[in-house]
Design a protein that fits this description.
There is one protein chain. The protein is α+β, with helices and mostly antiparallel strands. It has one domain: Roll (Nuclear Transport Factor 2, Chain: A). The chain has helices at residues 2-17, 29-49, 52-58, 61-72, 77-84, and strands at 25-26, 89-98, 101-109, 115-125, 130-136. The protein has five helices and five strands. Strand 3 and strand 4 form a beta hairpin. Strands 1-2-3-4-5 form a five-stranded antiparallel sheet. Helix 2 (29-49) packs antiparallel against helix 3.
Length: 137
């Protein structure tokens, strides 16, 4: 009886909690190339160049809202970006799809030896059929 109760409890836990954990699906080579070449690399180049007009094309949602004032009103922000990212190298790792978003692993290497590992979350803007970065961590 105890064994049946334990088995039943475990099944119940998996049934209730399982849907909360979205499955990561590796993206196809074609989608990877589309995202990397169409959004991620141009975004990194725009950061290095201090091109706020281009940066605005590649971000959306909360990420855009977070940097909106800097991108639209701060005239010194382009120079700051060029200085901050001078000599930086970006490496792009694996990408996986979760629901309708794509998560891309990235590494930023700076001339002072510091490295940052992070992830970009991208969402497809159906209006423009382009991928936009909506989260960066």
């Amino acid at each position: 009886m105890i064994r049946k109760t334990i088995v039943f409890s475990m099944c119940l836990i998996f049934m209730l909690c399982g849907p909360m954990y979205a499955q990561q699906i590796p993206v196809s080579d074609t989608l990877y190339a589309e995202i990397v070449n169409g959004t991620v690399l141009p975004y990194f180049n725009a950061l290095k160049d201090g091109d706020v007009g281009a940066i605005k094309k590649y971000i959306a949602g909360r990420l855009y809202q977070k940097y909106k004032v800097l991108l639209e009103q701060n005239t010194e922000y382009p120079a700051y970006l060029r200085n901050y990212y001078q000599g930086a190298e970006f490496r792009i790792g694996k990408a996986a799809m979760i629901d309708n978003d794509v998560i891309v692993e990235v590494t930023s290497d700076y001339p002072n030896g510091r490295s940052n590992n992070g992830k970009l979350v991208l969402w497809k803007d159906n209006g423009t059929e382009t991928w936009k970065i909506i989260k960066s961590n």
